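User: Fold this one for me? It's Beta sliding clamp.
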Amino acid sequence: MKITCNREQLLQAFQAVAAVAPTRSPKPILQNVKLEVSDDSATFLATDLEVAIRYQATGVEVEQAGACILPTARFGQILRESSDETFHIEADEKQIRVRGERSQFNLAAENPIDYPSIAVFDDQSYYETAARWFKELIRRTIFSTDNESSRYALGGVKMEWVDGVLTGVGTDGRRLAKMEGPVRAVGEPADFGAATIVPSRSLNLVDRAVNDDDGEVQIAIRQNEMLVKSPRAMIYSRLLEGRYPDWRRVFPQRTNSVQVELPIEPFYRAVRQAAILTSDESRGVDFTFGEGSLVLSGHAAEVGESRIELPISFDSPEVTITLDPRFVIDFLKVLDSDKSFTLDLQDGESAAVCTTDDGYGYVIMPLARDR
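Assistant: Here's what I get for Beta sliding clamp.
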């Protein structure tokens, strides 16, 4: 194998896959990254057998096709620490030689045949959607998942596809985020079914490896597996097993609730101010919606009290609900600050439901007011 490459571009591609290689593994070869070079492309591969990625590097001139195994930490350091613009990399069965204008490194070689094979996206039937929207779905749902729960299914985002609409749901049992939007089926792809729960770690990898300007991404569902392909990357993930909550029952169907339209940026500032005087023992903030204003009140015996007032358009009877400000802030952080959302309230004992006009919904369970 012999290539000449732009160091900065190679570093960018290497960093996209390096996080997948485990730092410790019963199979030591997994702690490395594989580089496969064909006549016209160079592709980095990494896997821990649960998640895998193929990522095509740019700025590479191929002189001789082949493959090599690169030690993740040391090769990453070489790429980061060098100031050379161009690298020449040559590998045989004994050594990998990395040579820049003013530097040279010789690395011990391993047999690339020993590296586990990684799935290839060769499905003729798949789902297709805009890369930017799919990344938005990930960003707006993944923060509600719970990787620490003994219920493993809560550590991922549940995905369903019905009549051209893909729905992603994340929950930790105390709040629930749902995002839905159009996704086209090409051919007759396998059904998402009732058990497509994608680990949050895999979705974080998709978010990092796929760019907003990648155009379309393709999604294939196989038995207990999901593959996502962009023009440059392919991410493979095993799906989580376990029973997922019936999320539709969490979204209340109300006829006697009140809705209030809230501007995101001023509301975000008010919640952050009210959260200052909360503590681990007293997290709740009272949100009181009265005529013409919203008052946020925080109280923690060992810290103090806060009162923040925000003028709003509200002419219904007064409603007070106690919420964890962290959950409210998490929701507001993933929205555009110059837009608004609708808050649906019934009383202080029922869930608060937040919705936007682009298919996003978020449910927060209230805290007890006697604290």
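One thing worth pointing out: The domain at 2-114 is CATH 3.10.150.10 (DNA Polymerase III; Chain A, domain 2).
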